[in-house]
Design a protein that fits this description.
single chain, seven-stranded mixed sheet, four-stranded mixed sheet
Amino acid sequence: MEYEAWFGPNAVTFEGSAAMPQLQSADMKAVGGGYDSADPAVIRQHVAWFEVLGIDAAIIDLTNNVSCIFNSAAFIEKYVPNCSSSFRTYNQNIRDNTGNLYPAWSGLGTNLKLIPLLGGIDNDVLIADDDGKTSFEKEVDYFGARIQQYPNLAVIYHGKPLMIVFLGAAQDPNPADQPLWYQIEQFLLNHPEIGDKYTFRLMAGYLDSQPGLWANPATPKGPVEISSSYGFWSWVDRLNPSCTESACPYYPSYNQAGARVENLTVSIATAGQDGWGCPNENTLPYCPDDALRFGSDHNYVTFDSFMTYANQLQPIFLFIHQFNEFTPPDEGFDANTDDDVEPANLWGSSALGALKADISAYRSGAR
């Protein structure tokens, strides 16, 4: 499950979000309501919901403003001028909330695991700070220390703890251009003290619309395999086989790892190329290439369709996009244009029931 521990009175709030989660924390009342991701009662309920759903692990998202969080004041003054003192504190609170999941989940005795999602979006993450370390290294070290302290919470893949690096959406397929994904790959190869300690995978978004990264760039008739030259995992992919826009049809992407599919990401709903609403982003009518949460009989039609492909491909890693982002513009203006699972005012607990049924059927082979 893709999961954000971003929220708090001095971090991300729910102001401006169309949906409001059912869980509430007292310290969030002054900023419009919602919950604090550091609230022990909220953490306990999230773990309980994850266990009911039947998931194995959460991908914990600390991908934004990495240098602002981890690097020195001198580095920030030179390379990250938009990182004010208050913005730095805001992002460090998100870091602290995310890191707190390790002792909090360990204290609950859960069998669930945590997979760090690192930031590989900003070009400054591979520039060395005054201490000789990059913010990318510092984020690896941050989560590495928590994995060392709470080893039972790590996902072990190829014999080592798994970390995922998020690259953003559109990716330049040409290594000769020195895109950031290529620089990160080379950095890990040139720093075996890091690259040999953990299993790293690179993750991008909307690979469904990037044929330059596919093994076969022809118009697809089903899920698209990512070329082994890249091996990117997907944060989110569109699914809309029947749309007629210029980039259509959309199918989710996957990687092949030997005889098995390595990864697939499924979603509650997916936005079109121009967002959720067309021509106005934040209102009806929906964009013609959206895939909405609900079908005509209020069933979870998009998630059900994704799970049909999951059943066919049987990936090693099946990711669910996502539990609780809530914030625009990624999340839209009504239930149909929000891909969150967490119980909220616009859809109640219906997503929990739908996902539990589909996950149970998937595990039993009944789909």
